[in-house]
Amino acid sequence: MSKELLSDMTEFHWMMDMLQTVDVGLVVLDRAFNIKLWNGFMESHSGLLPSQVREKCLFDLFPEIDQKWFSNKCRPVFDLKNRAFIIWEQRPYVFKFSNYRPLTGTEDNMYQNITLSPLTSTTGKVDNICMMIYDVTDVAASKKMLESAQVTLNEWHERT
């Protein structure tokens, strides 16, 4: 084996390891919303192994996801090669994962920000998209507590 090939294989190995251990959910979907990639974050929070979800339709596995809404959100990503974003203020989560952080235990579910990115093939066509799921529960819980404190303070000022 050549030194260059060994170097390429080593780089590929650590890149795959990084995809599995990064603290961000990574899901690759094709145009029929079949799951092509499911990383360790998704496995950990869903309880589903990559082998259990690969080549299965997202909506069959997660019927709580509004198919029409999500499909409309993904259309410009596939067709126009544009990114799309789903923020927790608009929709607290897409995947109903339990909140697992002891410091933010005030929330039952994980709040999520999601980026939908086109994955361009070698032909320039977008046949797959990548979902990047970020856990923003700490941010959401803090903002909700701040808003609640502001309401309480305003009520107190109105009484005095």
Give a short summary of the structure.
With 160 residues, this protein is of the alpha+beta class.
Structure in words:
- With 160 residues, this protein is α+β, with helices and mostly antiparallel strands.
- It is built from 6 helices and 5 strands; from the N terminus they run αββααααβββα.
- It has helices spanning 3-21, 40-46, 50-53, 58-61, 67-80, 137-159; strands at residues 25-30, 35-38, 84-86, 112-120, 126-135.
- Strand 1 (25-30) and strand 2 form a beta hairpin.
- The termini are far apart.
Which keywords apply here?
20% strand; 6 helices; Beta-Lactamase; elongated; five-stranded antiparallel β-sheet; 160 residues
What is the element string, with H for helices and E for strands? HEEHHHHEEEH
- What low-confidence regions span 5 or more consecutive residues with pLDDT below 50? none
SS-derived structural category: alpha+beta
Ends distance? 81 Å
- Number of structurally distinct domains: 1
Roughly how much helix do the residues carry, as a percent range?
A: 40-55%
Oligomer: single chain
Radius of gyration: 20 Å
In which order are the strands of the major sheet placed? 2-1-5-4-3
The biggest beta sheet reads: 5 strands, antiparallel
CATH topology: Beta-Lactamase
Can you tell me the CATH class?
Answer: Alpha Beta
Mean pLDDT: 87
Strand content: 15-25%
**Which superfamily, in CATH terms, is the homologous superfamily?**
PAS domain
What is the global morphology?
elongated
User: Which CATH architecture would you pick?
Assistant: 2-Layer Sandwich
Number of helices: 6
Question: What is the strand tally?
Answer: 5
